[in-house]
Please model this.
Amino acid sequence: MLDIALAYNKYKFLGNDYLTWIWFLIETDQNISSLLNSKDVVTLEVGNSIVLENKLGDKSMEKISIKGDQAGLEEGTTALKKGAYVTNINLLCKINEDEYRFTIKGESFNITGLKTPKTDLSHKEDEIEGLVLEKAFFCLNIFKVIDTLFLKYLEQRTADDWNVKGLQDIRTWIGSF
Model:
């Protein structure tokens, strides 16, 4: 059995690789709903920030942060060409008519700044429980999307043809910039 610190250091690249894969899915117009086997219409877009890191040697690291609603991703695509991985990405997820915004970190899979669809706050005090349950339902919706996408990523990543198909598709996408 691996020590937790050893396992963390050995597999921490997976989260960053996963976020890079999500960006690939978004940019290549993959049908997210079909990947999730969902009856709902699910779409993903890159939000207002993305952070990439590139190891330049044994101890040096280059960090590229792109922020802003109108920010272009040219610096990010250049960083990908140099071998960078996405380490933090802000996403806009639409599930049917509901819109969610959040940031996910590759190293820990922490979701921060989650903004769920608005709930009707005009209810009386005795209806607070319903509001809390509705908010919890919204949170579970987004967790389900992220978790299911991660399972799909792992299926592809561990498939025998990953180096031939999956990885090559991502390299072709990066080369297209």
